[in-house]
# Entry
Amino acid sequence: MPPVCVFLLLVCTTCFRKGYSHSYEKLREQNTDFAVRLYRTLVETENRTNLVVSPSSVASSLGLLLFGARGSTFTQIENALGYSVLDESVESFMKEVHRGLVNSSRDCSMHLACALFVQTGTPLSAKFIEEAALWANSSLHQNDFTEHNETASQINQWITRNAGGGIQRLVPCGPFAPGFTQIALVSTMYFRSKWKTQFPFTDTQTLPFNSMDGSVIKVPMMHQTADVNYGQFQTASFEKFTVIELPYLGNTVSMFVVRPTDRNTPLSSIEARLTSKSIAQWTNSMKRFKMDVFLPRFKLQSYSDLKVVLPALGVLDLFDPKRADFKGISETSNLYVSQAIHKAEIDVAEGGTRASGVTAMVLLKRSRMPVFKADRPFFFFLRQASSGSVLFIGRVTNPLH
# Structure
């Protein structure tokens, strides 16, 4: 299964435009900064081992809400994102990013989409409808939220269609909680691609992996010999780590794998110093080497409650029925976000899609070639080359879980 994700906001009943310009380089940095802050906050607040999240999906949904937010609600979302979609240069940049994420071919498919599911009869601002229609491949749907099962089924069908079939069900069928009667905002991000240099299935073998708790487990370890971008770095407190770039077909998206050099260095010490500037530094200073690359086959699925994460990023009013201000969506309805759900999945295998068959045990010949072996906890991110957008970011501390 390829990487897929869903970000769901259920909005219930109960500003002004800022005109400053941004350079595209600054926007690339702010876009990456949001991804890093979201990831670090998830790691800190959820205290889980394996994790995957799609910052692009979360950001696109918050961007869509920003068109309808006013007052402090607007300011908090704007500050969390680091930019305002109401600024023309930002809107132009983000639409360029979105266009790059709606491509499909036999070997590579990317799809970002947003949908508004609106309670029949809710009066919506014509300006918001116009802006939403031009944002991140958005669409508008009329639903009767009193018909619980039918509405949940329709939302889930839309999610399945726009997430490549990877996420079958996010909204449970059954009565919505009190107040789930007005608007549901859903965003999906789907990515499927083959590696530019595939890992031969016959080279995959069972090798040791040093997990976070110090135990050693045996995992299916993929192998390839390829020309790759590679770099060795260290933090301000001298923890050394290595970064490798593994491009997908077409060179439009790459996976970057970041691994502590010393087995005794905890992954958290590298993550704690992750910034948008450090990512830019790595990608600009890596060198090309012919290497033996070992990467465990892994499959991750994460379900995150963004009602915990977004307040940690300063977005508080969103979930408060007394303080949320979405008058830009509907002047006559008092709207607030009652639930924010994010679900992401990623499946990393030899060809880019899951292979099947008999596992082959291969003993690789020793060589003097440099080796990168992800045999200890690491984090990774999928990055769009043109915009620098982080499509997915996650950590692997146990490839078998």
